[in-house]
Write the structure tokens for this entry.
Amino acid sequence: MVTFTDEQQVYDRLGRAFQSLAEDPVTAAKLKRTNLIVQYQFRKPESTITLKLLPEEDLAVQFGPTTWRTEVVYAMEAETAHKFFLGELNVTVALSRGDIRASGPVKKILEVVPTVPPLIPLYRAAADAPAVDPDAEEQDAAPIDPDAPSAEEAPASEELAPTAAEAPEPEAPAEA
């Protein structure tokens, strides 16, 4: 199964998860302790996400080519990244098999690994979210009735047809 058909899908899913990290001040503060700029280069489809994790700056995420001076680069297929950020792929095994290639100072490469666990639930949420189709026409969407009960508010015992015990007795045929 192909998870990503184009670079925009990579940015919509993986990128959205990285941006969520930047929006959480506690997680962002932890990540910025790594004091580096890390880049993820993806193949199939070609795409790049770069994170600026510097203590003196806001955590920043950039999609596509960058002028930032990266210290650590991870290269992998986008499908490998999908499994990695879902928590389904062991980074040590993936590095040893060459599924993920890392370049940069070994100490810095190893410092990035603990930054992945907070990303896993964010990525899972981003991966499960429906893709936004900018070309979809608004009239295709059903209007929302603000007075209608939500699925959680609807009574659980509501049935569409009466049960056999509730059904009326059939009328006897008329005698001629």
Q: What stands out?
A: The chain has a mean pLDDT of 76. Residues 7-128 form a domain with the Nonspecific Lipid-transfer Protein; Chain A fold (CATH 3.30.1050.10).
